[in-house]
């Protein structure tokens, strides 16, 4: 009796039966995976916003402290300017001149601050982009 080699046995053997999942099961699994993906993307967005908020809060605190210290310096410099101008003119006019200079400085700082705030992006750019890509893929998974 002729013995079969392992290679010839492999050729003649029936392929192992792979259980095929139904279309409904596949769609259910895809939907479940998409839900998990969207939840993870939202968690990522929350984490990004929290991290950026923490950094912004710390920076704002530093700006607040610097602002108060600067305010005190400018208050005393302004008083010194008023007293200095009062040596050559009436005290009322000296105070009015110093106040006018501060009004001009305030207007310039307001305009610069307003322009700077327009450049702030409140949304997490990367996460928004990946969510758009995920939604597009969900609409057309074969593209």
TrEMBL record:
The keyword Transmembrane applies. Residues 1-23 are annotated as: Disordered. Keywords: Membrane, Transmembrane, Transmembrane helix. It comes from Streptomyces tendae. It comes from the Bacteria. InterPro entries: Phage_holin_3_6. The lineage of its organism: Bacteria, Bacillati, Actinomycetota, Actinomycetes, Kitasatosporales. This is Phage holin family protein. The chain crosses the membrane at residues 59-86, 92-110.
